[in-house]
Amino acid sequence: MSIIDFHTHPIFFEEGAEPAETRRQLRRARSLGITRMVALGDVLRYGRLPDAEQTRILNDDVAKVVRRSKRFYVGFCGLNPLLGEAEVWREVERCFETVGGFHGLKLEISCNARDAAMKPVMEAAARYEVPVLQHSWSQTNIRERAFHSDPEDTCELARRWPEVKVVMAHLTGCGVRGIRAARGLENLYIDTSGAAPEAGLVECAVDELGAHRVLYGSDLPIRDLPTAMGRITGASISAAAKRRILHDNAVNLLPPAV
């Protein structure tokens, strides 16, 4: 089966930036049946509040990886919404219209998904017709909701912008609570990245939301690829559901490989 990984960080704390490292990553992924990866930035290299120049550096690094294999990598433009509307638009337009290779937006922990600063981000996603991948994690124990996004916060973002496809990252970090919060939001997807696999969680997501709203994501290199894939291949769901999660749903959100 051809597999698309919707959540990877090819460069992580500056490791993976060299062409030889990209080639090794490609060989490893392809040996496991992965044919495309969404390339997200080195999101926390500069902490949770990168400035405008740092944001450009992170996105330029993603662009370099994408250029090495345009058929394999799809870039998502990382943003710090707290830099303001003008800077958000400047970076989005630069990534999509000048640099190229970007087909989505990525939000980390600069601000909560409910923050008013998210407005230009979502307007840009609507204009360019691209998905938004929002870092999400249950704040029951972390308790940093001022800038982290609880599952309910990401769901509210999707509810306010029904014309935008929103991906709630980290199924394991959001848990059953996140799955249930996402019910009835057809523009919201959950990717399966996060902590170690948890028995029954993928099955719960398929039962509650339908297989068409679940996306395979590994969080490479933080997580081991075979383990991340195993939570799907080993789940007690139909072969058709596995195919949707591992491939078909991502195809519907990404441009064709050319």
Q: What is the fold's blueprint, element by element?
A:
Blueprint: E1 3-8, H1 19-31, E2 34-39, H2 52-68, E3 73-79, H3 85-99, E4 102-107, H4 119-128, E5 132-134, H5 139-142, H6 151-160, E6 166-168, H7 171-181, E7 188-191, H8 201-209, E8 214-215, H9 225-233, H10 239-253
Structure description:
Pfam families: Amidohydro_2. Residues 4-254 form the Amidohydrolase-related domain. Keywords: Lyase. It contains 10 helices and 8 strands. The chain has a domain at 76-253: Alpha-Beta Barrel (TIM Barrel), CATH 3.20.20. The longest helix has 17 residues, at 52-68. It has an 8-stranded parallel sheet with strand order 1-2-3-4-5-6-7-8. 49% of the residues are buried. Helix 2 runs parallel beside helix 3 and helix 3 packs parallel to helix 4. The protein has 258 residues and is an alpha/beta fold. The mean pLDDT is 96.
Question: Tags for this entry?
Answer:
258 residues, alpha/beta, TIM Barrel, 8 strands, globular
